[in-house]
Structure formats: C-alpha cells, structure tokens
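Continuing the batch. This is chain 6 of the set; chains 1 through 5 are on the previous pages. Same settings as before, nothing changed between runs. Recording input and output for traceability.
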Amino acid sequence: MMETFLISKSKFSLVFVSILMMSVAFGQTKIEGIHYQTKKPVSVEIKDGKIVCIEPLDKLTDEKHAYYIAPGLFDNQVNGYAGVSFTFSGKNFTVEGIKKVTQELWNRGVTSYLATVVTSSQEKLLKNFSILNKAKNDTSLLGSLAGFHLEGPYISSIEGFRGSHLPEYIRNPNWNEFMAIYKASGRNITTVTIAPELNGAIDFIRRCTEKGITVALGHLDASKEIIDEAVLNGAKTCTHLGNGCANMINRHQNPLWPQLANDQLMISIICDGFHLRDEEIATFYKVKGTEKTIITSDVTCFAGLPPGKYKDDDGETIELTKEGMLRYPVQKVLYGSATPITRGIVKIMNVTGCTLGDAIRMASTNPASLYGFTDRGKIVPGKRADLILFTIGEKELNIKRTYVNGILVFDAIKQ
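Output for chain 6:
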C-alpha cells in the first residue's frame, strides 16, 4: 500500500544535525500524514521540538504521496551497527562511532535506543560505559541515546542458555561491582538482564528495582518458583524470549512456560525471521497481547555489512549469511541480529494479523513506557516530536523521513 504525507514550511533536507539544529531548532512546522492508528489524514503541528496539536484533515494536501505518520521507534537492544560495537570496543568505538550508529538508526526510523553492552570483563565494562556516557551527553544525538542496557554478565553459564556470551566472563551478581559500572555509565544504565537462579540474584533484582533500574530476565535456566520470586522482587520483563535458551530442553520443566504464564511479566521478542519461528511469535503474542509485548532487534555491529565471515574481539568466527542470518558456528546459535526493527514490525503484522497501530505500540509506546520515558512514544500534544513517515513494504517498513525532537534527521523523499 502506498500512503502519504506532506511537510509544510520545510526549508531543509538532511545534511548534518548541527546545521539542522541551527536552522530549524525552535521553529514551527506542520507535517501531514496518514495516522498510524486511525488510518485518517492528519496534520501534526510541531513547535520547539514538541508536538503542539494534531488536527484531522479531510484530505492530504498532496494525495499522490501519502505516507503513514507514527511516533519514532524505540529499540531497547542495540549492540551496535555498521562496524561499530558497544561491547567489542575497537578503533570505531568512539563518540564519532556512536554518532554513526545513531544516524544509521535514524535512517531506519529508530529515534530512541538503549545501547547494549554484553558480558565482558569488569575493565571493559567500565571503559565502554564511560565512552557511552560521554556520547550520551553529546547534544548532536538529540536525546536518541536514551540509556544503556547491561545484558549480563550475571547470566547462566550453561551451554545454550548463555548463547554467544563468553563463559570466562559470566559470574554471579556482585552489587559493589555493579555500582562501579553504574557510576561509570553516569548512572544511565536503564535496564539489566539477569538470570534469577544465580546466587544473590534475587537481592540484586530488589536493589536494582529500588534504584529505578528495570530488571529483565534473560539467558536463564530458572524454575517457575524462582521466576515468580524474581517478579515479586521487581523483575518486569523478559529479554528476547525464546532465545538465549538451550536447543534441547525438558518439554515440561523449562524457563519458557513460567515466563509466559506470569501475567506481570512483559516480553521482548526478535521478529527478524531467524530468531523465532512464525508459530512461536504467534503463540507468544496470543499469550501476552499487544500491551505486554515489545518488538526488539538485538541488532549488532554486523548489521549493514556485506555477507561473510568476521572475527569478534576475542577471535571468534561470526558468520553473516546472504539471507541476513547472523550466527555463531561454534555454539550453533544465533549471534544477535543484522536486521533492523522495521522488519520485525511487518513480520509480526503478517504472522499475527495485528494492526499497524498495535505493531507500532509494541515497537515504540511500550518500551518508552516500560523504561519511564514519558516524553515520547505517542503522537499527542506535549510529547517530543519524534516522528517517522513511511510506507509498508512486503518485509519491512520503508522509512521516508525521520524527525527527532522536531528536527529532520533523515530524508529519503525525492524533492
């Protein structure tokens, strides 16, 4: 379906954010498009980076170029992009490299994200979160680097459940150690993924919750009793449910059922066509529904690179297939994703029959709400003007324009 939009009072196309900020910050503009929920034409008025009002229209000014308009996407698990890794470090992991990742995400409609660092040595965690914190304070990112996600090192060390996390760095929770990491991050760690069966994990979950850090369960091999206890102590969601799980599990006693059965837990799922089968996506969605589901990408530094075999920081071979699958041959498991969240949106619509409005809620509104970012994730007056204009392709959303805080940061529309 081809849909439309028009921007009036637009005096710019994408160049550099610094130039855009000088030329349009504190300006006022109106954007027309097909509302992602109502499917009706609307005009969204923006002033000083905020949404001022939304007005219904009888028709679009330019009906030949109709685009959907929706809040910008919020990806809660971004490990890197286009050769820049938030874990591996390397020469590209700099503030400029993080800016590059952010622009790549803007090009794909992601206006907010959590930079994700996975299981590593304490030295590397301190160093990497310090670099991320420096980048977060860079005004040219326009607040898109919303916070950080620490995935590990407090996860299961069992083969399969640990996924591609390096076993030599997996360990039990240590509050003093974590506080050092938290301080290095500028106290910007928004969420932590943990296996609740580890020694000290329940107390760790409680203390994180008391500090306002969202606790996610992931890479776990826990019983129903432990999972329920984790929820009682503050755990709120599950990281990429169905992944970070051994290939062979007991059909009755495994960590999947209790996570699905606990009504208080949200879930995030990777809908890239590789991490979960269609019937898994459909089942998870039927159990949790739109309000308890988050679409994530788990995208890595290999996204945007050509197919081939690559080496990570530790010399491990990672393979990116021509189909877009990213795998870790040694463990015979996936190695994160090379696919942006825009594909996950269309995938879940095709598999479940959910509406575009539902899919956008799972990829924008829900994560913003879960992590306490009340200034974004919806098209309502007073929210940040983080907006995307797009059509719906066969496999993914086709992003036409992206606005962050009212500033045009990506433009694929032919003028």
